[in-house]
Amino acid sequence: MTLTATETVTPAKQAGPGRRPARTRALIPYGYLSPTLLLIVVLMVIPIVMVIGYSFRDNVIVQENSVFAGITNYTKVLTDPDFLAALKNTGVFISVSTVAHLLLGLAFAMMLNTQLLSGVTKAVFRIVYILPWLFTIAVIAVIWRLLLDPSGVVNYVLHTLGVVQEGVNWLGDPGTALWAVTFVNIWSGYPFFMISLLAGLQGIPHDLYEAAAVDGANPVQRFLNVTLPQLRPVIISMAVLDLIWTSQQFALIWMTTGGGPLNSTEMLSTYTYKRAFSEYEFATASAAAVIVLLLTMVLAFFYVRQQRER
């Protein structure tokens, strides 16, 4: 008996009516992203490119034919005493605000996370502490302008306590205006840090504290060796973000002091705004905006790097 071997031929797999070519499937995610990418290009990339182009030209916008000016606008900005004063004020404003935000946020977060307070007390404190975060910048500016007025509540309380003899114009005195707006910014921004750090505290395993207590660590040592190391990623992220946000603060300064008096509260944001829309020097304002962009990109670089390391 002879066996005849037969070869089984497998037909080539053909794409069904519902299947798409691999190249088409690879382009589908970009199709979903295209509306967002288009908005980013139109609302962010193109304006940034235009501002960079304006910074190298003179008489832009106000005249039809502008001329190439090279780095003249940058030299003018970097040697302007008002810009240097704004840079100094911005440095003081963001550094003091960031440190105070972290300290107050951590203190209130630990208060709300402690076991010494009841649940009802914690709930009441959370409502009270979160109130500054609920107000808009416009409302905050109006409220504090009234409170810090020479005839306002703050001066009345200080005068009653014997701290001051007469009403102090906190926002109108060059010696106190910068510290006054910094205080207002601290008051309005610390709740965000409090909530973020509270979430970080609640994520720390309780076993770490129990192990530290068994080893004989006191509350201060547990805070330094357990709490702070566990909160380090959150603290670094929040600090870098606050530096970026505070450096771009405009509405609060503009609605309280307008950069005055005598440029004592002039910030990089208000300096750029005045150059563009008060003095109509759009080329100089563009150069100042590019400088601010570069400074912000440095902070953003460290933030992204820290997030990638996490």
From TrEMBL:
Coiled coil: none annotated. The chain crosses the membrane at residues 30-56, 92-112, 124-147, 177-199, 234-255, 282-304. It is found in: Cell membrane. Pfam families: BPD_transp_1. Keywords: Cell membrane, Membrane, Transmembrane, Transmembrane helix, Transport. Residues 1-11 have a biased composition (Polar residues). It comes from the Bacteria. It is a multi-pass membrane protein. Residues 87-303 form the ABC transmembrane type-1 domain. Belongs to the binding-protein-dependent transport system permease family. This is Sugar ABC transporter permease. It comes from Kribbella yunnanensis. The lineage of its organism: Bacteria, Bacillati, Actinomycetota, Actinomycetes, Propionibacteriales.
